[in-house]
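As a representative case, we now present a protein record of this kind.
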Amino acid sequence: MLRRLFIWPLLLWGAALPAQNRELLGEYRIGMLGQDQEDAIYQAAHQGALASALNLSEQYSIDVELMIFTPERSQGGSQIHSLAQLYIENADGLIISPQNSEAVGASIDFALEQGQEVIFFESQLKDRPALAAVLADEVEAGRMAGREILKRLPTKARVAILTSVRPSSELKQRMEGLREVLGYRRIETIVSCEPDYASSIDAIRAAEEADRNDLIKGWVFLEDWPLLGMPALPWKPGKMPVVAIQSSPSAFIYVDQGYLDALVVHPYYDWGYKSVEMMVKKLHKGQVPEEAIVRTPPRVVDWRNAQDYRNSWKKWLK
């Protein structure tokens, strides 16, 4: 036991030496972890991070190496396994969209104990002292969705809202903003479903069948689960106003066919860009972000700017 206790500090000391040498040479290694490699929002964030690393390398005449370790969950990957690999690579900083689990929290604690800088994006573990968090303004996303659906409703018409049976903090914030704009008098029903395509379509169909008096005059999807497959909504295109808060490029077919009036979208590319920018400024220049939490504003996409947004996804998913 004494021998193990003696060797462990030596290993940590030995691991710290390359990081110190890289700092003197202006070389930095940054690890990035989303939650699933196949999810389009993380692919967009990766592209933003890569662009930021390249631009900052040129701006400061340094070498910024971005190591993307976002797991492929369909292949059995996990954030825990990816974090273990990242420690072997001896990164100077960690940018992560953390899963809310004790194991991931413990791994981040270990990174912080070893002197790594940590930045959260998309979501955060509030009890961890990270350098910063780049988060979506979900309350404003809900407000925007409310304003967009009201534009398309008759006077005093009511809407149905689709959410998860186990709403995350992000979904709760979206609901908060949506209620703020709509008020209780404009909400006919709140429909909960499992967060997947089939369950959401079933829940929407059931709600429409139960609406015997046709009181539902529009829908707001707090996530884009009903848009993750071929159109199967129980109404004809253009008949029912629909606004969705989107997390993937799958919605374009619904826009093209007239099922969807507006999307409220987050700047996924900017999440990666801003995170790397703050990390490099801290590692290379010692600059601490002015704000510990950076809220990125959402925006509305409809028929007027849908093509520009489609082109952005083509670049992000290249």
